[in-house]
Each structure stands twice: as C-alpha cells, then as structure tokens.
Design brief:
The chain is α+β, with helices and mostly antiparallel strands and about 180 residues long. The protein contains seven helices and six strands, in the order ααββαααββαββα. A hairpin with a 2-residue loop joins strand 1 and strand 2.
C-alpha cells in the first residue's frame, strides 16, 4: 500500500513545513494527530518523500514534534513568537554548498540524523518566507486547523479545500440566508 493510501489526512502535498503542520487536523469536531507514534511518523515520512533516508524512531518523532510546535508558533502566532523555537530546530543542521561536475549543489548535513526531517521542515519554512510570506495561509473555515501555500494566480485562495471547507462555508451562508428569509 502506498504512503498516500495509508495517509488519513484531508490535505496532503503542501510544502514540507505546512505538510508537517497538517499532521494535526479536525474530523467530526475532534482533533486528529498523525504523529502519535512512530507508525504515524513512518506514514508522514513516506508521504513527504522522506521515508527512504530517515528512520521513524522515537528520537526522530520527538524532533519532528518539536519542529511542528515551533512552526505552529511561527505560522499561527507571529515570527517574533516562533523565531527562537524554529532557530532551535535549525541549529541541528546546516547546508553544505559544493560544486559537482553537474554544477552547484547544496546538501543538508546533520550531526544527528534523527534531526533530519525536523530540520528540513524548518528550513522549508525559511524558503517559503523568502519566496512569498503572504502566501502562507491558514484555512478560513472556523473549524479547520489546516495550512496551505496559496499558489493561485491572484493570491486569493481562502480554503484548504474548496470541496470541503469552502463548500461547508457556502452551505452555512446559504442556510443562514434561507432561514432569515
């Protein structure tokens, strides 16, 4: 069974930092968390394309959870609130630049490989901030905790999924209008 088939999350395929945040979601009013154990970590690693090079062990899970909490503070709070926590994760790795026969290359390096996935997610957040910080969004539906990177041409995407949250919001507005009429 593929990682995508095992991944129960309603939104996948976002940039790594936001995909990590989306390992916590709400289903039928209850918070769900993919990262409650190393089996869930294995699903996330596979889904994120990190399964081959990273072991889903307790240390990696601990570090990924630390990164998720740091990213949540930065994305849902403020950069001022989250910067130190994200920097703590980033302190466990670095980029090594090199020149190969194929051209320039950058490779992440970690003193402790169990920090790899956490560091890559934190690093991806820096890349998103450098690219288009105003396109890092939380779903506009009041009962959704998912995040996405708005790639729409005009930058007006509001929902994690138009089919799910967008449709629920439209149905709620329609119900309110018809009830008042």
């Amino acid at each position: 069974m593929s990682a995508a088939a095992r991944d129960p999350r309603p939104l996948t395929g976002e940039p790594l930092a936001l995909d990590l945040l989306n390992t916590r979601w709400i289903r039928e009013g209850a918070v769900q968390d993919l990262l409650t154990d190393t089996d869930g970590l294995a699903v996330w690693l596979d889904s994120a394309g990190l399964g081959g090079g990273h072991t889903p062990d307790p240390a990696t899970l601990r570090h990924v959870l630390q990164a998720r909490d740091a990213l949540k503070r930065a994305v849902d709070g403020s950069l001022r609130e989250g910067a130190a926590a994200v920097d703590t994760v980033l302190a466990h790795g670095r980029i090594r630049a090199s020149l190969t026969a194929d051209g320039p290359r950058v490779l992440p390096e970690f003193a402790d490989p169990s920090w790899g996935p956490a560091w890559l997610a934190a690093r991806n957040y820096l890349e998103l901030l450098a690219t288009a910080p105003d396109r890092i969004r939380s779903c506009a539906h009041e009962s959704c905790v998912l995040h996405f990177f708005d790639t729409s041409r005009n930058g007006t995407r509001r929902w994690c999924s138009m089919a799910a949250c967008g449709n629920r919001a439209k149905a709620s507005r329609h119900y309110a209008r018809s009830k008042n009429a």
